[in-house]
Amino acid sequence: MTIDTNCIEVAILGPLPQHFSYRCDAPFPKSGCRLRVPFGRGERIAIAIGTATCPQDIPVKGIHRILDEQPLLPASLQALLGFGSNYYHYPLGAVWEAALPARLCQGQQIPSLAPTAWRLIADANIAERGLGARQMVLLQRLGNGNVRMAELDSSDRQRLRQFLAAGWIEAAQEPLQLREAPLALRPEQAQAVMALRASTGFQAFLLDGVTSSGKTEVYLQAMERLVLSGKQVLFLVPEIGLITQTQARCAARFGADAVAVYHSGQGDAERLRVWTQARSGSISIVIGTRSALFVPLLHPALLIVDEEHDLSYKQHSGWLYSARDLALRRAQLEDVPIVLGSATPSLESLHNRQIGRFADLRLHERASAQKIPPIEILPLRKKRLVAGLDPSLLRACGETLANGKQALFFLNRRGFAPALLCRACGHVPHCQRCSAPLTWHRRQARLRCHHCGLEAPVPEQCPSCGAAEIAGIGMGTESLEEFLRERFPNIPLLRIDRDEVHTPRQLAERLQEILHTRPAILLGTQMLSKGHHFPDVTLVGIVDVDQGLYSADFRAPERLAQTVIQVAGRAGRGDAPGRVILQSHLPEHPLLLALQNGDYATAATQLLRERQQAGLPPFRALALLQAEAQRAEPVYAFLRAARSCFATELDCSGPVPALLERRAGFHRAYLWLEGANRSALHHLLANAISLLGNLPTARRVRWSLDVDPQNF
Ligand code: ADP
Ligand code: ZN
Question: Are the C-beta atoms of 370 and 572 separated by less than 8 Å?
C-alpha cells in the first residue's frame, strides 16, 4: 500500500469524539495552528495536531486555509490540553475550545500589540544625512534609553514609524521596579520564601498557613526576583470576587502595568488582549480564575494556586476539569515551581504532603501576632432561640457593636425561609422540576427554586388542602437580616449573598463599604467567608452548619471544616482579638470538637483517617458516570447497560439516584466507579468509554463522566 503523507490530523473545535484527517499541501501547518476545514456541508475551525497517514486510494478532503503561522500555544500547553482530554476523557476539540479565548475559536487573528516603549537597536546602521533636527533629537533620546509611547506627541510618533521602517529601533521591555518596600518577614514566612526562591525546576509546595498568616506576602516576595528579571507568574484565585484584592496588592508592589487579570466576567475583546499580552511576555503577573490556567506565558517561572481547597477550581459543566490539578501538570510540563496555598488545605493536598509529593511550608501564626480565636460551641438543644439565634450570641453581638466593631453572621442559605409548610396538612411546596422544596423570598414575594431557577407566586392557601395556615420554616439570610435590623435598629447592616450582590463590581463596592463602616453587622453566605480581609470584625457568629454533619455527600464534613475555619478566620485580623461562636444542635459531634481550638489540622487528620478506612479518595480514585433524561426509565437502562462495559477489576456500583434526584425536569442517577489509584481507574475508563457511546440506550440520555468528582 502506498502512503500519502500529505495529510494532517486535526481536532475540530467542539465536542466531536474523534479526530479527522485532511489533505494538505505545503506549507504544512505546525501543530497547534488553526485551520479552516470543510466539514459536512459547511466549514469548521480545527486545530492541527499532527501528521496523518492517509491511504492514497481513499479520497480525502483538503483543508481550506491555514489561520496561524505559529502555534497558538507553546508545546507545553498543547501537551497540557492533550493530557486534560485524555485524563478527563473529554474530546480534544472541546478542550481546546474551552481553553482558548472565544474570539480565537471564531477564527479571529491574534491582535498585534503596540509596544509601550522603544529603543535604538544597538548596531543600527543609521544614515544621518538628510535627517531633520527633530528627528536627530528623537534618535538621541532613543539612544539614551527607552522612550515611552505615552511621552510622545503625534509628530514624534510619526517619526518613530519612519525609524521602525528603516530598521533602526525595536520594542523595549520596560524594566519593572519595586513600588513599595517588601514587609520584614516573620521567620516562618522567610523560610517559605527562601524555599520557593531556591527551587528552579518543577517542584510542588503546599503553603499551609493559618488565616491571615501573610501567605500573600510570601507569594509577593517569592515572585519578586522573577518578575524583576522579566519572568512571568500565573496567579490563580478561585473566584472573580477575590481578584480585585490580589490585583491591588500585586500592583502596589510591582506597578499596575505589570499586572493583568483574566476571567469569565470580562468581554471577549479584553480577554483576547490580555491573552495576547501574556503570550508576548509583556505582562509579568496574570491573575485569574479557573480559565486563566490556559493563558500562555512566554517566560513562565512560577504558578500560584491560592485557596487551593476551594471547590470553584472544579469546572462543573462541559469539560469537568480541576484547575488545581491541571495546574500541577502545567508546572511539571513547563518545569517551574508551583505553590498551593490555603489555611484549610484539601484532604487531597494534605495526603500529597504526607506521601512526600508536596514540599511542606507552614505558617502557624498570624502575621499580626493576634491569636487564632478558639471556636465557642453553643449547644442549641435546650435553649430558647430568638429567630434561630441563641441569646448569648445576641449579647455578644451587642457588646461588639457597643465597642464600635463589626459582627459577622454566617448563614449559608439565601432567602427568607428554605421552605413553606402548611401547618394544617404538612404539605411543603416543591419545585415541579426538581426534587427540592421551593425557597421563600419574601421581599420579592416569590417562591424560587435554587436548583433550576423556577419561580412561582407565594400561595395564600395551601395548594394541597386549601387551609390558610401556610408559613415559612427555617431561616435564610433574608429573615436573619430582618430580625437583626429590628434588634439593632441604628446599626448599619451589610448583607452579602447572591440575591444582594450580582456582579464582581457590586461585590467590590460592598467589600469597600465594609472597610469604612463601624460599627456594623455583616451578614452573608459563602460569598462573605472567602479570603477577605476585614480588620474590624471581632465577632463571628456561625448560625447553622449542622447539615454538613449528616449529609450523604462524603465530602460534606471536609467542606464543613473548611468553611468553619475560614469564616472563623475573618475574626480578629486587626488590632483587637476576635471571638467566634458556633451554634449547633450536635455540640458533641467529634468534628466540631476537633475544630474547637481553631485547629484545622486535627480535624483534617481525623477526616483523612476516616477516608482511608472507608476506601475513599484520596486513598482510592473515583469517577462518576452520570446520566439524565426526562423519564427515569432510560437513565437506569443506560446505566445498567453501561455497567457491563466496565471490566471486573473496577469496582463499579449503582445505578444510584443523585442526591438531587430530579433537576430542571431531568431524572439523574450515576454509576460509582473506583480504582485502586488514578492510573488503574484511568485504564479501565479508557477501555469502556468508547463502548458507551455505541450503546443503543446512550441515545436516549445525556451522559457524562466526572473524574475526581467533587459534587454528587
Ligand atoms: P493570608 O493571605 O495568609 O490570609 P495576608 O497576606 O492577607 O494573609 O496577610 C494578613 C495581613 O498581615 C495583611 O494586612 C498583611 O499586610 C499583614 N502582614 C503579612 N505579613 C506581614 C509581616 N511580615 N509583617 C507585618 N504584617 C504582615
Ligand atoms: Zn427546580
Answer: yes
